[in-house]
Design goal:
single chain, 462 residues, mainly beta, 13-stranded mixed sheet, 2 helices
């Protein structure tokens, strides 16, 4: 046919058709067309039924699914033109890699293909997808591995449930619940929300965040190299590890689960809310606040965490591990936890300090642990200081004295006292204290250590 329109069903339209005009299958019941259609004309699927095209067609005028369902029986079922799916209609290309451009005007696309152009409505691609699409509305689910590029406009949503090796631009809402390759890139634009869930790992992907990143994981997740002006929220119950150089300038809020910073976060103000924990051995270049119910647990058993400013607010908990090296303190970051404050007079104590000891031998008298390293003066004060863990130093409660220090009373089983000096940020192991010992603690614990060293040197000289 070369003019007009040919309308029928699979009962009346059979065999090979040369279509240089328009053919419509008005199918109200299931049916299959196994002939071959060629020419420059178009094909329209009308009616509420399902039409299966099983021939290797070559018509080039495009395909429109206006109602019901259209099923591809092979990769060449739709010829060479674009396939348009209207509102309420269904296109089924499950298990096939079709070359056609897809335009979804509010219908549903099921299957796998190489979609190009724009998508709207609800779509599901269940196997390997090579995409070059812009999702303008509705929700599109990529249930199989994805490569190529996907752009998501404001108001649209995309769900990735399998591996991603693609460039993804997030202007709407995008959910990732599968790993990404190191060649992947995620660009979250202003107003966009990218949610990473359990099963995803984007440690090697390039991420530009000018919108919002939500980390809702129940197990472990790795992220790194985040830039931009956007924010990050940690809301899941799992553990999020932030590696590499991260210079995004929006806020970081941890309201649940654990954030482990093992890289640098140079410009983001970090807040640990109730239910959240911060750990790791990285560096924070902006202020850190730990709110009531939040936990600061520096290191990676143990380690050193650095911050430009630290505000330990009332009701917070600071958890520090003390292992030591034999009977000596050892090295900060290797044998015990340490927090370093890089801006002078920018440490505010508050909440509760918990010291977790894992130590079999006793420490020498005069042993010092520099738990908080800072210059200038510290403000505020802890509400309580106690110990836990194993060994002679566990299960103790420290009391606050008039000299401004915390000390154990009664002493340990070995006749030693633990004394924490907020003014110096140090924990000391001392023999049974007298008034002068406690005063020395307030003035600086180094003197006690120095006297011990001089006695030892004198003994050796003799």
């Amino acid at each position: 046919m070369s003019a007009g329109a040919l309308v029928g069903t699979t009962s009346s339209l059979r065999g090979s058709i040369t279509n240089n005009a328009a053919v419509t299958f008005d199918q109200s019941t299931p049916g299959a067309y196994s002939g071959v259609m060629s020419g420059s004309g178009s094909l329209t699927k009308a009616g509420s039924g399902t039409l299966t095209l099983s021939g290797a067609n070559s018509y080039s005028g495009g395909t429109t699914v206006s109602a019901g369902s259209l099923v591809a029986g092979n990769a060449s079922a739709f010829g060479a033109g674009a396939v348009t799916v209207e509102a309420g209609a269904i296109l089924d290309i499950i298990g096939l890699l079709v070359p056609n451009a897809l335009v979804n005007n509010g219908g549903t696309i099921l299957g796998v293909d190489t979609p190009t152009g724009s998508l709207s409505g609800d779509n599901t691609f269940s196997e390997t997808t090579i995409a070059a699409v812009t999702v303008t509305s509705g929700t599109t689910t990529f249930a199989g591995p994805v490569s190529g590029s996907v752009a998501v406009d404001s108001g649209a949503a995309v769900v990735f449930t399998s591996d991603v090796n693609a460039s993804v631009t997030v202007g709407g809402n995008v959910s990732f619940s599968a790993p990404a390759s190191e060649s992947s890139a995620v660009n979250v634009t202003a107003g966009g929300i990218a949610t990473f869930e359990t099963g995803a790992s984007y440690a090697g992907a390039a991420i530009t965040n000018n919108g919002n990143i939500v980390l809702d994981v129940a197990s472990t997740f790795a992220l790194g190299g985040v830039s931009g002006t956007g924010s990050i929220a940690v809301v899941g119950t799992g553990s999020v590890e932030l590696n590499g150089v991260n210079d995004y300038s929006g806020t970081t809020n941890v309201t649940n689960g654990t954030l482990i910073v093992n890289g640098t976060v140079s410009a983001s103000h970090v807040t640990i809310g109730s239910g959240g924990t911060l750990g790791g051995s990285g560096t924070l270049g902006a202020p850190l606040a730990v709110q009531s119910g939040g936990v600061l647990s520096p290191g990676n058993s143990p380690g050193i965490l650095a911050a430009a400013e630290l505000d330990l607010q009332a009701g917070s908990t600071t958890f520090m591990q003390v292992i030591g090296s034999g009977s000596a303190a050892g090295i900060a970051g290797t044998d015990y936890d340490q927090v370093q404050i890089t801006t002078a007079s920018s440490l505010t104590y508050g909440g509760n300090l918990v010291l977790s000891f894992i130590n079999s031998p006793l420490f020498d008298n005069g042993t010092l642990f520099s738990l908080f390293q800072f210059t200038g003066t510290a403000r505020g004060g802890f509400t309580s200081v106690r110990t836990e863990g194993t060994g002679s130093y566990s299960g103790l409660t420290l009391q606050y004295n008039a000299n401004g220090n915390w000390y154990t009373n009664p002493n340990t089983a070995a006749g030693q006292y633990l004394v924490f000096s907020p003014a110096s940020g140090r924990l000391a192991i001392v023999p049974e204290p007298s008034t002068w010992v406690m005063a020395a603690i307030g003035a600086g614990l180094v003197a006690l250590k120095a006297r011990r060293r001089k006695r030892a040197e004198a003994s050796l000289a003799a």
